[in-house]
Amino acid sequence: MATGINRRWMLKQRPQRLPGPECYEWREEPVPRAGENEVVIRNLYMSLDPAIRGWMDDRPSYLPPIPLGGVMRATTIGKVLESRCAGFERGDIVQGLNGWEDYSVSQGRGFTARVPVHPGLPLTDFLSVLGTTGLSAYFGLLEVARPRAGETVLVTGAAGAVGSIVGQLARRAGCRAVGVAGSDEKCAWLERECGYDATINYRTRANDLVAAIRAACPDGVDIQFENVGGGILEAGLECLNKRGRVLLCGLISQYNAGGDVRGIRNLWQLIAKTARIEGFLVRDWLDRWAEAAAELAKLVAAGELHHREHIERGLEHAPETFLRLFDGNHQGKLIVDIAGNEA
Amino acid sequence: MATGINRRWMLKQRPQRLPGPECYEWREEPVPRAGENEVVIRNLYMSLDPAIRGWMDDRPSYLPPIPLGGVMRATTIGKVLESRCAGFERGDIVQGLNGWEDYSVSQGRGFTARVPVHPGLPLTDFLSVLGTTGLSAYFGLLEVARPRAGETVLVTGAAGAVGSIVGQLARRAGCRAVGVAGSDEKCAWLERECGYDATINYRTRANDLVAAIRAACPDGVDIQFENVGGGILEAGLECLNKRGRVLLCGLISQYNAGGDVRGIRNLWQLIAKTARIEGFLVRDWLDRWAEAAAELAKLVAAGELHHREHIERGLEHAPETFLRLFDGNHQGKLIVDIAGNEA
Question: Chain A partners of B227 at a C-beta cutoff of 8 Å?
Answer without folding.
Answer: none
